[in-house]
């Protein structure tokens, strides 16, 4: 097939980039014909020749079923070009989670690749609504399935090295959008990721058993978690998730904008989140440990968080900051359960320790929530300049803390404090404050409420209860 050679001139040196236009390999771009075979031919030719640029050219919509990226390929979706997932569920047959076939399939994927780039300024569209059931008030029903859930994950890279995703518009995924498994040296920059906010499981970016990942200058809207760090059991051989930075991002989520967990069978550590804005979200920042893995050495700084209630379809109760450590509910003896170690139906939960929050400004309908099944599971949580403003702004009932999914009661009715700490060790609250708004239901009470907390330090705290003189500002229960 013909190729185009581009010459880049810089400092009198010339480098040649071979360009592989998918039209030259038979793509139609009529929005009706499945062009996956042509796209795959172009990718195969590019990598076989030693690498280059595979171009999805401007001006057309290219419908496509599943295809695989390969090493040394720059996948270039040009401005005013759209790559659209085939809505035919039957073409999606490869599971996104290996032998676990009940959590989606693969659309664009790659295995054991090096030096892969996705860019171009165009649109990659997962056609998500085509895979949904009936539209509800704030979500879509999920279609029933037998063994294989055909909803495609938009992009899955497993065992990738030196991955670059930048200057691209990604939207409308039917399941997870960008899923990086066992990857090393990844940069995701300057992307716009817009999923339908009613699509359940529509995560934005999932960093899974990966390391040395940088996410910067991105705008993400997602029904489920916007950015999530985790360690799925299906890919346990890839080891811990560590050395992650997220900066200068804006996020919206019906679930949790920044999430760590809930799947974590290894270790998540050494992550920094800074200079971000979270708005119109259910939860803001969440650490949700439910498995035997640990979470440690995480820093959150310079973040604005706006949270409010959504229905119980979505996990969360408007918590701007949420840290919990509970083992998940027992499994089923009859079927394979991918949430537990092989052969097990009862799990355990690892520790969460050394978590730092600095200069976090929170506004919303609930307060900071820290809770564990026992005090040894959460150790060393540091809040410095964390300011919480609480006001009731929706018609959805509150007075509830959400511990789902867990072995204990999931939705717990309770008075709501600006800072609620339960079963934890060594919590420090410095130079922080609480401000109450004008619309205050009776379940809003203390500025700080603690139960079974050892090593609590309060330094320079400002704030009152909702009824000074009647309700304690700080309520400590041994």
Automatic annotation (TrEMBL):
It comes from the Bacteria. One of its GO terms (biological process) is carbohydrate metabolic process. Keywords: Glycosidase, Hydrolase. SUPFAM superfamilies: Pectin lyase-like (SSF51126). One of its GO terms (molecular function) is polygalacturonase activity. Pfam families: Glyco_hydro_28. The keyword Cell cycle does not apply. Belongs to the glycosyl hydrolase 28 family. PANTHER family: PECTIN LYASE-LIKE SUPERFAMILY PROTEIN, PECTIN LYASE-RELATED. This is Glycoside hydrolase family 28 protein. It comes from Pedobacter planticolens. The lineage of its organism: Bacteria, Pseudomonadati, Bacteroidota, Sphingobacteriia, Sphingobacteriales.
């Amino acid at each position: 097939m013909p190729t185009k050679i581009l010459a880049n001139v810089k400092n009198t040196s010339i480098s040649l980039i071979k360009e592989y236009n998918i039209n030259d390999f038979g793509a139609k771009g009529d929005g009706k014909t499945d062009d996956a075979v042509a796209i795959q031919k172009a990718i195969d030719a590019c990598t076989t020749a030693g690498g280059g640029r595979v171009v999805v050219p401007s001006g057309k919509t290219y419908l496509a079923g599943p295809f695989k990226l390969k090493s040394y390929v720059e996948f270039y979706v040009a401005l005013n070009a759209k790559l659209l997932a085939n809505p035919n569920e039957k073409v999606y047959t490869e599971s996104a989670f290996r032998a676990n076939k009940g959590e989606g399939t693969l659309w664009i994927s790659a295995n054991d690749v090096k030096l892969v780039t996705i860019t171009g300024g165009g649109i990659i569209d997962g056609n998500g609504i085509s895979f949904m059931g009936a539209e509800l008030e704030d979500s879509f029903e999920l279609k029933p399935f037998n063994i294989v859930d055909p909803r495609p994950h938009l992009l899955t890279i497993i065992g990738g090295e030196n991955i670059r995703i930048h200057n691209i518009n990604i939207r409308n995924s039917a399941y997870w959008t960008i899923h990086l498994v066992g990857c090393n040296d990844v940069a995701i920059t300057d992307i716009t990721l817009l999923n339908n906010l009613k699509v359940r499981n529509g995560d934005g970016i999932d960093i899974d058993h990966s390391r040395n990942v940088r996410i910067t200058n991105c705008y993400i809207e997602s029904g489920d978690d916007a950015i999530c760090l985790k360690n799925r059991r299906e890919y346990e051989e890839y080891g811990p998730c560590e050395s992650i930075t997220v900066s200068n991002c804006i996020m919206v989520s019906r679930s949790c904008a920044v999430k760590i967990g809930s799947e974590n069978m290894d270790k998540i550590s050494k992550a920094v989140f800074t200079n971000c804005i979270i708005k119109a979200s259910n939860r803001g920042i969440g650490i949700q440990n439910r498995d035997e893995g640990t979470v440690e050495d995480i820093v959150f700084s310079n973040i604005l968080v706006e949270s409010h209630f959504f229905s119980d379809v979505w996990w969360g109760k408007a918590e701007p900051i949420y840290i919990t450590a509970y083992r998940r509910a027992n499994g089923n003896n009859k079927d394979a359960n991918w949430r537990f170690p092989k052969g097990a139906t009862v799990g355990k939960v690892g520790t969460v320790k050394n978590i730092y929050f600095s200069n976090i400004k929170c506004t919303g309908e609930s307060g900071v929530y820290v809770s564990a099944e026992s005090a040894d599971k959460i150790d060393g949580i540091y809040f410095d300049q964390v300011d919480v403003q609480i006001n009731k702004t929706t018609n959805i009932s509150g007075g509830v803390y959400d511990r789902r999914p867990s072995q204990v009661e999931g939705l717990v009715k309770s008075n709501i404090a600006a800072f609620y700490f339960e079963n934890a060790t060594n919590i420090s609250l410095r130079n922080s404050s609480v401000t109450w708004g004008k619309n205050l239901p009776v379940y809003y009470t203390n500025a700080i409420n603690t139960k079974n907390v050892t090593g609590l330090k309060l330094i320079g705290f400002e704030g009152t209860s909702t009824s000074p003189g009647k309700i304690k500002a700080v309520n400590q229960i041994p």
